[in-house]
């Protein structure tokens, strides 16, 4: 029923930033190198994500809004070795149950693209022109779910959550060019050079990025790479830490503590570290939370990873080889 679909959708679509996250993940899974994101009114007015990925073939279009239909995974075993970001086939179905959606897509060498309009539970489609890739526009988010609308904060706060999501994915994928336009104003524009420092310049500031120290270490199956700001470039709050595991954005209090300990005794009192840390390890050594809307992670060898990250960052900061 509609109600059941809307309740279930709440698990994936908590707020506008969750929609942005899911659409970005789909675009990255489609191999996009250019990703343009536009929002209005904190995301409740409009969210549009356009990519130059592979597009969706006409034959696959009837399936994309069907929950649990996904093209990305064939067996449960794949979950441990998962490389794509999406794997539950829930995002688009959930989004369409709480918003109006327009999807314009085209694959390479097709005579035409296709525009699919999904409004008030009805779907229509027609041929439409587009270069290869997909644009998805989401409007009237939560208009049929007043309880969700009431839970949302101000437009400025919701916009802040979206900027945070886009910043994280941009840092995770320096080879992809991201733009974010907020209420008609360009708010982010990463160059997609493949150099983390270039993306960091846009997101953390040119001055900080130019002074950041390379973090680079490997031990057996574990490796870390990234950038750490010098201690005198610390922030007045805890918003400066970014973690990615196998290119997936994760939140981990353990990793935050490891980096904070690496800066111990070096930072001015009341200042917090700024760092972008990429960890690579065998997928079998982690549990990615299979809840699609969450970014939590569990490591099987917590202590080993804690020590490795703390030591690697510490060595970089004090100029010693690890
Ligand atoms: P999942 O990502 O878990 O497969 P979604 O509901 O997020 O499920 O997306 C459903 C399907 O729609 C995807 O499996 C993919 O085939 C297709 N799709 C969605 N967004 C895009 C996109 N930007 N480019 C290409 N295909 C897409
Ligand atoms: Mg997805």
From TrEMBL:
Residues 200-318 form the DNA mismatch repair protein S5 domain. The keyword Nuclease applies. It comes from the Bacteria. Keywords: DNA damage, DNA repair, Endonuclease, Hydrolase, Nuclease. One of its GO terms (molecular function) is endonuclease activity. Belongs to the DNA mismatch repair MutL/HexB family. This protein is involved in the repair of mismatches in DNA. It is required for dam-dependent methyl-directed DNA mismatch repair. May act as a 'molecular matchmaker', a protein that promotes the formation of a stable complex between two or more DNA-binding proteins in an ATP-dependent manner without itself being part of a final effector complex. This is DNA mismatch repair protein MutL. It comes from Candidatus Dehalogenimonas loeffleri. The gene is mutL.
């Amino acid at each position: 029923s509609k109600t059941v679909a809307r309740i279930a959708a709440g698990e994936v679509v908590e707020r506008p930033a969750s929609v942005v996250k899911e659409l970005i993940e789909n675009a990255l899974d489609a191999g996009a190198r250019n990703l343009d994101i536009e929002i209005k009114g904190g995301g409740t007015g409009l969210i549009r994500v356009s990519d130059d990925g592979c597009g969706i073939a006409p034959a696959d279009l009837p399936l994309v809004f069907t929950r649990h239909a996904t093209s990305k995974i064939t067996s449960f075993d794949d979950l441990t070795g998962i490389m794509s970001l999406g794997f539950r086939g829930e995002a688009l179905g959930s989004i369409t149950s709480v918003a109006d959606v327009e999807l314009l897509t085209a694959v390479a060498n097709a005579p035409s693209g296709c525009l699919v309009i999904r409004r008030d539970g009805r779907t229509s489609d027609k041929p439409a022109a587009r270069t290869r890739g997909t644009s998805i526009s989401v409007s009237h988010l939560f208009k049929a779910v007043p309880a969700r609308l009431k839970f949302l904060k101000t437009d400025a706060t919701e916009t802040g959550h979206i900027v945070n999501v886009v910043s994280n994915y941009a840092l995770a994928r320096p080879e992809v060019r991201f733009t974010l336009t907020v209420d008609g104003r360009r708010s982010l524009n990463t160059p997609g050079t493949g150099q983390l420092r270039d993306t960091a310049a846009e997101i953390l500031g040119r001055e900080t990025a130019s002074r950041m120290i390379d973090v680079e270490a490997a031990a057996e199956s574990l490796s870390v790479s990234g950038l750490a700001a010098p201690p005198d470039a610390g922030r007045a709050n805890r918003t400066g830490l970014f973690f990615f595991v196998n290119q997936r954005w994760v939140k981990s209090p353990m990793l935050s503590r490891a980096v904070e300990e690496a800066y111990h005794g070096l930072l001015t009192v009341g200042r917090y570290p700024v760092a972008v840390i990429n960890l690579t390890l065998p997928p079998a050594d982690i549990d990615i939370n299979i809840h699609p809307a969450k970014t939590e992670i569990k490591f099987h060898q917590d202590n080993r990873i804690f020590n490795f990250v703390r030591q690697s960052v510490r060595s970089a900061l004090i100029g010693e080889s690890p």
